[in-house]
Amino acid sequence: MTIAALGAVLLGHFGEAAALAFLFSLAEALEDRSMDRAKQGLRALLALIPETARVSRPGGPQTIAAGEVRTEDVLLLGAGDKVATDGVILSGRSWMNTSAITGESIPVEVGPGDEVHAGSVNGSGSLALRATADGRDNSLTQIVRLVEQAHAAKGERARLADRIARPLVPVVLIVAALVALIGVLTGDPATWTERALVVLVAASPCALAIAVPVTVISSIGSASKLGVVIKSGAAFEQLGAIRTVALDKTGTLTRNEPRVVDVATSEGRSREEVLAAAAALESASAHPLAAAVLAATDAAVDADDVQEVPGYGITGSIHGRVIRVGSPRWISPGQFRNRTHEMASRGMSVVMVEEDSHVIGAVGIRDELRPEAAATVAALHAQGIRTVMLTGDNALTAHAIAAEAGIEEVHAEQLPADKAAYVRRLSERAPTAMIGDGINDAPALASATVGIAMGATGTAAAVESADVAFTGTDLRQIPAALAHARRGHRIMTENIVLALAIIVVLFPLALFGVLGLAAVVLVHEVAEVVVIANGMRAARTPGVGAQEPSSPVGQDLRETSTVGRPVA
């Protein structure tokens, strides 16, 4: 463009040179503006962190800069205050507006022991919370860093555009020089030199260079504002091509909060007696199912001589009676054999309770399916995406949960290495996304075409291994994010085709003198503006916040809380 402008001045075409400089500058300004708007989401996220925080000190409350907050500091929050960094509530009850962080529109009730994230807005209550992260290194700054990394990384289409544009420039310069040389050889240097300048403008790859980046940055920026963190342009583009989704069960499809849902008792025994006996022993256990048993009863019974038998269960005594609590593999179900099989077929983990060598009951515990899981799977199927469940749980439980969710293909009792190997095979056949949230999911997330971690502030290993992370845990973000990426995929393709079409059409018209410099400049710069405007369409948030018309999941994604309980 610079060579063409200088050449136009030397040839005396001052008007054309001025038009070229003006229109090119206008297009560059629009490009900068579009990039700036695409990055506003990041600045908005950073603006959620308050400038100051009130912390408890031995001499009384003290106000310090938010960046000076350190782990273990006690923060004091009043009504309407923003949370300076991640923390755990020590005292007080209130509600938190987390919509800017997790994309969940409903404020959530919080109290002692609940986790809160940086940038959340406190409601009407007063709270004291212990900081679990430094003011400059928390969940919110992590999200911003991930999105900035995405801006720096280029996807396959961006590389394709670069591969086209990079050799195009020297080729066009050579062609322009040859066109000028024709003028010298034919004795009409002025005409052919002018054509050479027009050829330079016509074949300028400006539109091609901006075609993909503006789309990728717009898409990633809008997704980040609604709780979908995409780490790179490559991940964004691959996300738009996904044909298979593999889902972990525990913590992804289910709540990861086991609850007692059924209790079978022997004759003469009550439900409360069985649960009280089990809870007396389980109170000394760290097993995940122990918390479910303890939460199911208020009966307080003391047990003596409690000993855990790793892999089997736990033993002890209550008022001189020997009690055992454990799996059916250790304690034979006896008369409860059919009942325990029924529990297992309904997706429950079974805990047997035995007193003095007589089985007195069976407790069915299940990690309940998330309420939006079935609708999410249906939405994926509506988009033509195949779903698979991968889990380390037993086959009966896995098939029961999968049936409720609407997933037909199930692979149970999988070790982390098994999951990774299967996901790798799936990815070889078709672009595959793996969705998980735990440390055991990290190998599978890394093996997938796109790894998606549920909860960007959750398990570090899962987030590190994933290409995409959701700050919330609402499964409906999955089909919405895929639809958003697919839409961005289409816009990128449109931009590349349009940018190449402009060059293909203008080049011969310029070469044969059909169009002059002013006309080519005008068409070229208008085309660049069109490409930028088209790329900016990818910033529309409904692509993430709502489903395409064909999807049954058209509601707001942000209804499910990840902190505390939703306010009624």
TrEMBL record:
Topology of this chain in the membrane: Multi-pass membrane protein
Keyword terms of this UniProt record: ATP-binding, Cell membrane, Membrane, Metal-binding, Nucleotide-binding, Translocase, Transmembrane, Transmembrane helix
Membrane-spanning residues: 6-27, 164-185, 197-217, 496-523
InterPro entries recorded: ATPase_P-typ_cyto_dom_N, ATPase_P-typ_P_site, ATPase_P-typ_TM_dom_sf, ATPase_P-typ_transduc_dom_A_sf, ATPase_P-type_domA, Cation_Transport_ATPase_IB, HAD-like_sf, HAD_sf
Subcellular location: Cell membrane
UniProt entry tagged with the keyword Metal-binding: yes
SUPFAM superfamilies: Calcium ATPase, transduction domain A, Calcium ATPase, transmembrane domain M, HAD-like
Region (Disordered): 541-568
The protein's name in its UniProt record: Cadmium-translocating P-type ATPase
Organism: Brachybacterium epidermidis
